[in-house]
Design brief:
The chain is an alpha/beta fold. The protein has eleven helices and 23 strands. Bound molecules: flavin-adenine dinucleotide.
Length: 399
Amino acid sequence: MLATADRFEAHFPERNGSLRSRFSLLTDGAVYNLLVIVVVGAGPAGLASAAMLRRRVSDVVVFERGVVGAAWTTRYDRLHLHTVRWLSCLPGYRIPREFGKWPSRDRVIEYLERYADHHDLDVRSGVEVDRIERSNGAWSVVAGSDTVEAQRVVVACGHSNVPYLPDWPGTFRGTTVHSADYRNPVPYAGQRVLVVGAGNSGAEIAVDLVEGGTTEVSIAVRTPPSIVRRDTLGVPSQLLGIATAHLPVPIVDRIAATMRRISIPDLKAQGLPAPQRPYSDFLYRRVIPILDVGIVDAVRRGRVRIVPAIERFEDGAALLEGGSRLDVDAVIAATGYRPGLERLVGDLGVLDERGVPLVHGAGEHPDAPGLHFVGYEVLLGGAFRLAGIRAKQLARAVA
Ligand SMILES: Cc1cc2nc3c(=O)[nH]c(=O)nc-3n(C[C@H](O)[C@H](O)[C@H](O)COP(=O)(O)OP(=O)(O)OC[C@H]3O[C@@H](n4cnc5c(N)ncnc54)[C@H](O)[C@@H]3O)c2cc1C
């Protein structure tokens, strides 16, 4: 049987020279090898963390189950960054100006690939980490039949890692997909489609369907969402989110409610009343406001109908709260995601009751020193931007 280092090299093709040459073997059986830092996940958070850590620590390896930017390679065709280019750059390499103000999905993937190259990151693609375990004051990272020992581990597998599909009672004869599996409106031409959930994905998919020839598009809404213009007179709303982050909650509530009143038409009659305390709602639900890329107009013109939340299915119909019935051919569940960290670190006592890490970035749980989480906070300033900030803080703390 091959020693772990050999098996590791065989399984995970090298990129930046031999991993083996950088191993300190802890036992003569070569059961474990010591890498200094393992980052799990090569999305924006993992790449930014690896890039910043590499400036201070020589051995940083990124394990990625797919490819660099994997989550973006499967997102819907019309997706563009909702956050503006210059506030979405990861540290140490800017998004090129020619990628536009709101870079497209493919440009985001290109940027992440260029980012990894620019920082010469050692990304091992096709390595899915199964478990992270304590090991003699360090950490064992278990990937299939291989185990690598690391002094520190940065978990960056994505807040939106596992699609969440509610288990609605009843049976539905039409098709149901999660928004993670939606690509474009082509399969839905001529159909009646119900989108469930009024977050950014649900709102944008509804607009995509309307523009793509879907006969009837409805959105099932349980809690009326906050809606903001993506930008006003060229100023992105994201800036407001950053600028107000440290103000008292009632003041931000008032600013947000006023912005909604002056910039978005009243959609109460269509079923989308403005929340009274939008910022308090955000802090409670941690759902990013809809950045309008066409939903306001589509709802106002009646091209997208707002309906109550689904209660159950019955044959070809959705039965809605309040007792109404909606006949539909397909359901697209824009019902969000879960971090899905239980498998990796569920027994370490580092997650809260929703499965979200209790510490972030440079923070370390007292029971799990050397274990970090980047990319699991939901704030208003943009997740790319925040990942960069946390990555820099982490690298400073580690150094
Ligand atoms: C539709 C959509 C649009 C968004 N638009 C914006 C936007 O405009 N601006 C913004 O700032 N944010 C946006 N976000 C939020 C967030 O910035 C992105 O989701 C971003 O990709 C998160 O980066 P991440 O690195 O934390 O996670 P991800 O991009 O999800 O990367 C995690 C990586 O970890 C890998 N991985 C997972 N589990 C394992 C494992 N066990 N072993 C090895 N690898 C693993 C995955 O394959 C993936 O490559 C959007 C999110 C969604 C869902």
